[in-house]
Amino acid sequence: MPTNKDFSPEILDKLNALQKKYAAMGQDISSYLDGLLYADFLTYWDYINLDTLLNLQQPITPYPDEKVFIIYHQITELYFKLCLHEFDRVAQSVEAGELTPAFLLERVRRINRYFEALTSSFDIMVDGMDAAEFLKFRMSLLPASGFQSAQYRKIEICSTSIDRIAHKNHRDKFSNPTIDDLPKVFKHLYWREGASELKTGTKTLTLKQFEKKYDSDLLEMAEEYFSANIRSAAASLTFSGDDKLKDELKHAMRWLDVNVNINWTLAHYKSAVRYLQRDPEDIAATGGTNWQKYLPPRFQKRIFFPELWSEQELEDWGKSWVKKEIFGINI
Ligand code: HEM
Fold first, then answer.
1. Beta-bridge partner residues of 189
2. 279 within some domain
3. Is residue 280 a part of any domain in this protein?
4. Is the CB of 207 under 6 A from ligand 1?
5. pLDDT (tens digit per residue) in 198-217
6. Which residue, by CA, sits nearest to atom 25 of ligand 1?
């Protein structure tokens, strides 16, 4: 039996606290101490599942750059997961009736930092990649495409009300939807018009596969986030005269709109242009998709928080960046 001589008062305090903790749950502390005695010391590699992580890169062709392509997609998905973790914290806070402007601001700022990292690193992957190799290994992974990233769609669902991600031809008709309208709006989300054959407009297998696998999950998520998406959550807040906080949140939300709907989108579009640019007639002739009309933000005008932008800013959405980055015109 331990005595006061063997243990410092701090250790005895901790043992007492542990005793209480386990007793409160009807558990015997001594069994848990046994577990502690026999357990191995934790290692870094086990803690972060390093072996599993480093075994998840399995190219299907002999081209070395395919590994770079896979790893960069995985890195992006992990950043997307970090974003979704922040959205989840907002949703939990809304559900508990505890959301504050300061908490929402910190979550949005974090998501912004993740997207900034992604946008600025796009070139790191793209610049190094051999174009000829890319075009070869890409054929082996068809019809798989980043288009099928469900986390990307989830980020949109968590950011704004569902009408804002409806196709632009349907957006006005669906503004201010009720929760009962969700299934109807959901059928007209903008991405259902993407990944379609340029020649005939029919859905590609890429899109069909995606809808089959994720439609029900995504609709469920849209229901969960009906009041907890960033746009609705922000609208429900009161600022009690704190104009500085209100301005900071507005700024962070505008930045989120730019990060997701212009900066990342255009960095990605730039890669598609660089590797896949061909005459639309050639694309149509080879069964290619409508990506040239679909990917640029100035065509889609996906905007999470239209109330935070002026008429002119809404009108010019994505234009100056396209001119500068894609066509090299400085305005
Ligand atoms: C050389 C690099 C890349 C090229 C050439 C490329 C090409 C494309 C193309 C052509 C599309 C349109 C879908 C279609 O018409 O089939 C697309 C969509 C998409 N890709 Fe990529 N991609 C690249 C890298 C990435 C990376 C690293 C990610 C990260 C996950 C990604 C995620 C996406 C997403 C989320 C979409 C859907 C975008 C939307 O619906 O607006 N792509 N990509």
1. 166
2. yes
3. yes
4. no
5. 889 999 999 999 999 999 99
6. 146
